[in-house]
Amino acid sequence: MPREFEDTKVIIGAIDGVHVWPVSNHKDLRGRLFKVYTDGPHPSFPENFETFEHFFTESKEGVFRGMHFQGAPHAATKVISIVRGEALDFLLDTRKDSKTFAHVQTQALNQDSPVSIYIPEGVAHGYIALREGTIVSYRQNVAFCESCDGGINGSIVENLLPIPLKETIRSERDLHLKEFASFSYTSKCSQ
């Protein structure tokens, strides 16, 4: 059941258009094989998705990355998957015309029971690494555009973190992102 924080206007609950699905995970004496995405006649989920970029982040325990998205005119859709370690994932709907605007959805990510998450355009993403060397895979449907890169300060999910936000490891960029209440996306892209 969604709930509203007293100190913000953010509601905890599912976000329209976000899909989470378990990853096929096969272990044997050699290690493991896991399939994070399938397209074609038996897709992982009922959304069309073409990968343009595929990259990975490796994080120390206590790293907080987010909340990031890529806006218009090169808005990005992503599929993220846990590869190694453990994290707590956060999604924030920034789409003002969405029925789930300002909703935050959380998802546990763990290498032992991996999932993938489809993140539509306009949904900001972030996570906190709960283990040393946590690796997250990002597949994106368009090229990265620095001028379209947007973000919201992680304080929006501070009440959901397992440790105080000030004790997390964050990039200089993430430290200076605007608060959600004063956030307005403006692209610097000339296309």
Write a compact overview of the structure shown:
It contains 1 helix and 14 strands, in the order ββββββββββββββα. By secondary structure, it is mainly β.
Search tags:
mainly beta, 14 strands, globular, RmlC-like, 5-stranded antiparallel beta sheet, 191 residues, Jelly Rolls, dTDP-4-dehydrorhamnose 3,5-epimerase activity, 2% helix, 7-stranded mixed beta sheet, RmlC-like_jellyroll
The chain-level mean pLDDT equals 89
Strand order of the largest sheet: 1-2-10-9-12-7-14
Q: Total domains, how many?
A: 1
Could you describe the largest sheet, including whether it forms a barrel?
A: 7 strands, mixed
CATH superfamily: Jelly Rolls
GO cellular component, one term: cytosol
GO molecular function: dTDP-4-dehydrorhamnose 3,5-epimerase activity
GO biological process, one term: dTDP-rhamnose biosynthetic process
Pfam families: dTDP_sugar_isom (PF00908)
